[in-house]
Amino acid sequence: MALLSVEDLSIAFGGLAALSGVALEVNEGEIFALIGPNGAGKTTVFNVLTGLYRPTGGRITYAGEDLLRLAPHEIARRGVGRTFQNTEVFRQLTALENVLIGEHGQLRSSVWSAALGLPWVRREEAAARRRALGLLERFGLLDVAEVEAGNLPLGSQKRLEIARALGSEPRLLLLDEPAGGLNPTETRTLMELICALREGLKLTVMVVEHDMDLVMSISDRIAVLDYGRKIAEGKPREITADPAVIEAYLGRDAADA
Ligand SMILES: Nc1ncnc2c1ncn2[C@@H]1O[C@H](COP(=O)(O)OP(=O)(O)OP(=O)(O)O)[C@@H](O)[C@H]1O
Ligand SMILES: [Mg+2]
User: Fold this and answer.
1) 94, part of any domain
2) Please, is 69 exposed, middle or buried when counting C-beta atoms within 10 Å of its C-beta (0-12, 13-18, 19+)?
3) CB 82, CB 165: distance < 8 Å
4) N or C, which end of the chain is more exposed by having fewer CB within 10 Å?
């Protein structure tokens, strides 16, 4: 059964239909890419999936549950994690603190019990710290654990944002342009990381990305949006050969040539 099933999803802003009748099925353990030209509606799909936007129509089932009945924090608690298109690390906090914040939703301790310094809280926090350091290590960021996130190069900030999203132990991870602004070396590191996450943590990953080398090499399946509609879906090889996709990206002349 699919982990995520989206049916007939529509949303409009003013007069503009940002998504029209979009259907998607993402299977457990899959790396599923969502691609399409600027303004196609990719980020909007993520915003609906995380409960930030309410669609005008459609159904979404996640892990057997009606996702549209849930508030954003409930969706996060059920294991939907994400990163944002514009890197959003807490710039004044250290890399370690950024990951600890990502974990916080999972901790039982409240601010009050933490302030009281109860022993079980201290144990929980020590465990959280160990886990956060483990995540930083996995992402090649252990050396910079105590560096303010704003002072890290973009490639490291992007990896840190993924590490933070993993702090909440998601089952479905949504990555919005993880390679945006990265150089080829940083992109390759990221590519390997995403694949390793799927292998090691058995994560299901949805990725929005303009870097076609990355998309084609890591995705099991790809859906293509154009003007809010799904115009194609398939394995990487099928997508690159699809005339509708070529036309959406390059324009009719190029498709005819
Ligand atoms: N909150 C909003 N208010 C008004 N219009 C919006 C809002 N969010 C998205 N849109 C519009 O919906 C359309 C789809 O936007 P979206 O951000 O999903 O595109 P995208 O595929 O992620 O594009 P890009 O590749 O440039 O990030 C665009 O026309 C955008 O202007
Ligand atoms: Mg976007």
Assistant:
1) no
2) exposed
3) yes
4) C
Residue nearest to atom 25 of ligand 1 (CA): 38
**Strands 2-13, 16-27: pairing kind:** antiparallel
- The answer to whether residue 160 sits within a structural domain is no
Whole-prediction pTM value?
0.91
For 114, the token pair is 């933490």
Q: What is the mean pLDDT of residues 63-82?
A: 95
Q: How far apart are CA 145 and CA 152, in angstroms?
A: 10
pLDDT in tens, 161-212: 999 999 888 999 999 999 998 999 999 999 999 999 888 888 999 999 999 9
For the Cβ of 166 lying below 6 angstroms from any atom of ligand 1, the answer is no
Atom of ligand 1 nearest to the CA of 85: 27
Structural domain boundaries, residue 75: 2-87+172-178+203-256
Supply the CATH number for residue 218's domain.
3.40.50.300
**Nearest CA, atom 28, ligand 1:** 39
Q: Is 97 inside any structural domain? A: no
Q: Is residue 161 part of a domain?
A: no
Give 115-165 pLDDT, tens digit per residue.
666 666 677 788 889 999 999 999 999 999 999 999 999 999 999 999 999
In terms of Cβ atoms closer than 10 Å to its own Cβ (0-12, 13-18, 19+), residue 207 is buried
User: Are 90 and 104 contacting, i.e. CB atoms less than 8 angstroms apart?
Assistant: no
Q: Please say whether the beta carbons of 145 and 136 come within 8 A.
A: yes
Q: How many CA atoms lie within 13 A of 168 on its CB side?
A: 25
Q: Which two tokens stand for residue 170?
A: 């998601």
Instruction: Calculate how far, in angstroms, residue 84's C-alpha sits from the geometric centre of ligand 2.
Output: 9
pLDDT for position 124: 74
